[in-house]
Design a protein that fits this description.
The complex is a heterodimer of chains A (477) and B (72). Chain A is an alpha/beta fold and 477 residues long. Chain A has twelve helices and 23 strands. Chain A folds into two domains: 301 residues, FAD/NAD(P)-binding domain, CATH 3.50.50.60; 149 residues, no CATH class. Helices cover 24% and strands 23% of the residues of chain A. In chain A, helix 1 runs parallel beside helix 12. The chains are: A alpha/beta (477), B alpha+beta (72). Chains A and B meet through helix 9, helix 10 and strand 22 of A and helix 1 and strand 3 of B.
Chain lengths: 477, 72
């Protein structure tokens, strides 16, 4: 059933599970748990459609490299699935190898723990099981990289596809305009008893449940946990100061440009670094795409303005000089796109600002930092792909100055993949949730979404998020 | 503390400056040539040694032997 919280005074029922957030993680969990017979309350902070009032709550104080979270996430029913691109690629077995990076352990689970949920996750995002994941082209490089295989979801808009099912479900009560603003613990401080919610008119109520799952994304999940500080000063689950640490993105590096030897042979090539290359050189993974720009392209609500500036920059031939503002690519250029794994590091973090939002909650203080490990990954990957591209007779790559000159600061952008801020680990000293996605030290609080990623690989996170949520649902059912 | 400039403020400033500039100079400047004018000054060559086999010349990654032997 679907309810507007503006029209409710109290919610008296005690639910089996309370899920906060209606993105791909929250909706997947709600559907699976309800089908297993559990009573579920599903809370959405925004409405059924976009509103500035809700979106404004993503505003944060950015003090590191800016990832523009207020423009890249969406805060209404369906969450960021309302504008995701749909690219899907599963994690590799090697993403779960036991490896210490920057003093932090990797995943405490193995690839085999999420692999059984792949086909069901593919169904959820409308991928063809039979078709699987395909490459754009044959193997062209001899060493270090192979042709990357992926699949494209239509992309599935979770609101359009799953809202009717949720409306009709007898086991799901979904409330929108219901902002989570606090968690209430019992005397032991180990069990959550209730969640406090509020609409935009500051009408509050408490909701009781036996289990709680936070599915708020890589920035809002830690912000909420840190703001729940009425009973525990450091915030919920933050006994070891790990909540919000290790923010990771997939790095989008304007690595350079290239010329094909035979421009008519290929329009687009896509490669993935192989395990041996990463292991021998002790670097992270990377996806590298080489394509010829046909026309200026921009995305998002400000694309007309972005296109205007890109056209000016291309006409004036100053695109190299303005790369620091945005990714300026002009028609005819050979563009190299990347999706590079960022390693977990403690200095890259989400904490609380001194500024508050309309609910009196502290806004997020967003400090995105890359590490020396990442700098080595970026430079080594770029130089190696340039050499391999030439060796294979495909053409010649021109690398950006900051790749070749270690004295220059590396330029990087984002892919809107927010990961790692409530990372999974065996030890509470190295993460926030255990191998079952349960918050360390709290008996009935779980987290769904990419904030639990211990490492991010170089694959788009939506499908692994769904696999992990299917696994969590099976654990809780 | 001075407020840091964000992308929106930066873009607004660029729009204002560009539109003002284009309005003022439209009648003052000669018609722009159809092809951008390229500087005839020689571009300094930046040479980076990558390893024993490859070098980067102004960023272009080529085999080192192409520099010494030329390319047939």
């Amino acid at each position: 059933m679907l309810y507007n919280f503006d029209l409710q005074k109290t919610i008296d029922k005690t639910y089996d599970v309370c899920i906060v957030g209606t993105g791909p993680a929250g909706i997947t969990l709600a559907r699976k748990l309800s089908k297993a017979g559990q009573s579920v309350i599903l809370l959405e902070a925004g409405g059924l459609n976009y509103s500035d009032e809700s979106q404004a709550l993503y505003e944060c104080e950015s003090v590191g490299h800016d990832g523009w979270p207020q423009f890249t996430r969406l805060r209404y029913f369906g969450g960021t699935s309302n504008h995701w691109s749909g690219r899907c690629r599963p994690f590799d077995p090697s993403d779960f190898d036991k490896k210490i990076i920057n003093g932090l352990p990797g995943w405490p689970i193995r690839h085999g723990d999420i692999e059984p949920y792949l086909e069901e996750a593919m169904d959820i995002v409308d991928l063809d099981r039979g078709q699987g994941f395909k490459t754009l082209h044959d193997e062209l490089l001899d060493n270090n990289f192979y042709s990357d295989a992926f699949a494209h979801s239509p992309p599935t808009r979770f609101k359009e596809k799953y809202l009717p099912e949720i409306e009709q479900s007898k086991n799901i009560d979904c409330f929108y305009n219901a902002n989570a603003i606090d968690l209430v613990l019992d005397r032991s401080h180990q069990v959550i008893t209730k969640i406090k919610i509020s609409n935009y008119k500051q009408h509050h109520t408490l909701v009781a449940a036996n289990k709680f799952i936070l599915c708020l994304g890589g920035i809002e999940t830690p912000r909420f946990m840190l703001n729940c500080n009425n009973q525990i000063k450091s915030g919920i689950g933050n006994g070891n100061d790990m909540v919000g640490r290790c923010f990771m993105e997939h790095l989008n590096i304007p690595m350079g440009t290239f010329l094909y030897k035979d421009p008519d042979q290929y329009s687009k090539l896509q490669f993935y670094s192989d395990d041996q290359f990463c292991s021998i050189n002790n670097v992270g993974k990377s996806n590298v795409t080489l394509s010829i720009i046909k026309q200026i392209k921009s995305y998002g609500r400000t694309k007309a303005i972005k296109n205007f500036f890109k056209k000016i920059a291309c006409q004036m031939e100053i695109e190299d000089k303005v790369q620091f503002i945005s990714d300026f690519k002009c028609p005819g250029m050979g563009a190299i796109g990347t999706l590079v794994e960022q390693s977990p590091n403690l200095d890259s973090r989400v904490s609380l600002s001194q500024k508050t939002d309309n609910f009196g909650q502290y806004k997020a203080r967003f400090d995105w930092q890359i590490s020396d490990y990442d700098r080595i990954t970026i430079r080594h990957t770029a130089i190696t792909i340039a050499k391999e591209f030439h060796k294979a007779g495909l053409g010649t790559v021109r690398l950006a100055d900051f790749i070749l000159d270690k004295n220059l600061e590396i330029q990087f952008g984002h892919h809107n993949h927010h990961m790692g801020t409530t990372r999974m680990s065996h030890s509470p000293k190295a993460g926030v949730v255990d191998h079952n996605a349960k918050v360390h030290g709290i008996d009935n609080l779980y987290i769904g979404g990419s904030s639990i990623f211990s490492t991010g690989g170089a694959c788009n996170p939506t499908m692994p998020i769904i696999q992990l949520c299917l696994r969590l649902a099976q654990h809780l059912a | 503390m001075p407020r840091p400039t964000n992308r929106r403020v930066f873009c607004r400033s660029i729009v204002l400056v560009t539109s003002t500039y284009l309005t003022i100079t439209k009648t003052m400047l000669p018609k722009a040539p159809s092809q951008p004018i390229k500087s005839k000054a020689p571009t300094p060559t930046k040479l980076h040694s990558i390893d024993g086999n490859y070098v980067a010349v102004n960023g272009w990654v080529i085999p080192a032997k192409d520099l010494t032997q030329g390319k047939g």
